[in-house]
């Protein structure tokens, strides 16, 4: 509680406490040791498959419609790519309908999807509550729904009615993002957090990041920047320039609920003469789109990201539908968090862990 109270005054850098020291012993030895161990695990690239190894054989002749929030979102597009890849292996047809990012467009796309009477529909990156009439129509028609980032938690959902929701755990993503800062800084950091508080999921993620950072006495939250994602391209450069003026030496690290903030921040850092390799050292707590990997690998104002295994999640969606069609429960699998840096990404532009293709092929008999 004391940590939470201490953070309540940190909106947009209102704290006037002394800047954290970047030398000497860390400010939280036990927390720092735990963070180092967690980050070391998360940075491993050659990990063993921990997902399902048993399940029903492939059901034939099915059609899946993927309703996308917008295909300009790299995360949504990456999952759609994985879905198509897996569908070719299992022998199904896939159709993608782009909602275009607007409420009206998403509702129209869902309406079109239901009218096609497919075997299943994917809720691709939007709140099912925004299409409640279409979701009800799908239920009445007996069409199972599988979500991707559709609700906050992974797994089956009764309200809204989803056979399952495929996503990483927001608690894990938030936690490892904060632990990366604690470990990377040696327990001494001045942090700026970028979020979109208008989105409940994003606000919860940023609140969890704040709480985890507060477990280290040597980490100070300099500013909590609430910038709605639609305004990020116009507002982020101005806010970053202001923050650099206010905290020229104290600002050592940043964390954002989505990598895109650092794409928009880069011009302001560059104009201020900051080196692309930091400080501030920046980590994105979400998605891990190709542009984020490009910034990380080229040392351009981003040091790390906590990426979603997008292609793998597309394969998982196919497997979850196959379980639904076979009258079996959802797999319950949740992908573990991973931290990608220039040191472990080997020049890749996405996080594509090993083992899942072979595992799903064995399950399906393909």
TrEMBL record:
SUPFAM superfamilies: Periplasmic binding protein-like I. The keyword Signal applies. Residues 11-23 have a biased composition (Polar residues). Pfam families: Peripla_BP_4 (PF13407). Residues 7-28 are annotated as: Disordered. It is found in: Cell envelope. Keywords: Signal. Residues 64-321 form the Periplasmic binding protein domain. Belongs to the bacterial solute-binding protein 2 family. This is Substrate-binding domain-containing protein. It comes from Streptomyces hyaluromycini.
